[in-house]
Specification:
The structure is a single chain. This protein is an all-alpha fold. The protein has one domain. The protein contains 21 helices and no strands. The radius of gyration is 22 Å and the shape is globular.
Amino acid sequence: MTPIEVGGISVGAIVLLIYLGVYIPIALTAVSFVSIWLMRDNFTLAMNLLKITIGESAMEYPFATIPLFSFMGLVVSKAGLGTDIYAVMSSGFRRVKGGIGMATVGANAGFAAVTGSSIASASVFSKVAVPEMLKYDYNPRFAVGVVAGSSVLGMIIPPSAMLIIYSFVAEQSVGEMFIAGVIPGLLLTVAYIGAIWLMGYFTPGFVGGRPADDYEPMPMAEVLRRTLPMLLLIATVIGGIYLGWMTPVEAGAAGAALGLIIAAVRRTMSWRSLWDTLIETGHITASILFLITAASIYSRMLGLAGLPRELEAILAASDLSFVMIMLFYVLLMLFLGTILDTSSIILIVVPLFLPLIEPMGLSLVWFGIITVIGAEIGLLTPPLGISCFVIKATLDDPRITLKDVFLGALPFAGVMLVVLSLLIAFPSLSLVLL
């Protein structure tokens, strides 16, 4: 077989293995190693490339952002900031049709800005927001759909784990990726709130609910008490990076330290809880580093196979326009999103398309935002929509089926697709802050 044929079969084999449940880094590493061995008929070369990849990947300084932001997110979650921001938002939207749903979106956006995890958001707000919406007679399908839809904000609003993974795969600045994610994240938040208002106006039966008349207006002092810690964290992390006062690693360290101080002041973390948080941070860090190391050997395999150049030649021969190329790319991500998780899509697809995007003069930072949002739609679509599974498992309510979660999330997946189209049509929306 030619290297191109080996490379093509390897990509298919990786997708199949991940779909069958093989751990993503294992699938990437094993298939890439065997493919290099077959292409060069040299076991020693494949082994040496694997050694070099492991050494180079794990020793880069920017990788320090991973444990720092992971620790910050876990500490903030334990400090109860998600519940606080939800209470403030619910008070503000209490008399609006679908107001508690809007409050959930706003709270998720704020929570995402200090955790960077869709799974954490889905878990927290399943316990907080869904029971509250059911209390005020909201349609259960709408209630779980709002939580599922808004949970994906954690993957686009910085500090996002997916933006960090993309930055390493595409060799882009983590700080620039974080800054570029701010406007798209806010745009998606506003689009969700607007969509809820439209659903409440045109399809009131789907939304359901009644005014939360027993919600008392929250005094400004209470609003400040509940929101100031989160605002300080956001200003420290994002503000520090944007103003150039701190590198992403330094911002992660400052945010982690501040989160720990907040948890200590609130007395929400015992020594045992701190130890558990450190252990969980280690697990997350090891998992992400393993992913990135596997992605590195996979990229080297693709380069040896010449698959990116072959794809570029095929698309060039087809004389496709920019619109058609992006349409093909988005459709590919939507398809893969039905069977793979976000990190798998980024690790498999991005190395294939980077050699095609760079010669077109397109910003790789913008391309990263497009990639993450496109892949994130897969969190809401069956059969693998991870956020939907997390919500169902967290609720453990027999009245709400997995089908209800998926159908409730469907309108929000549509909103994401509209926002994604806007970001493709107007790249400046992602790059205006850079």
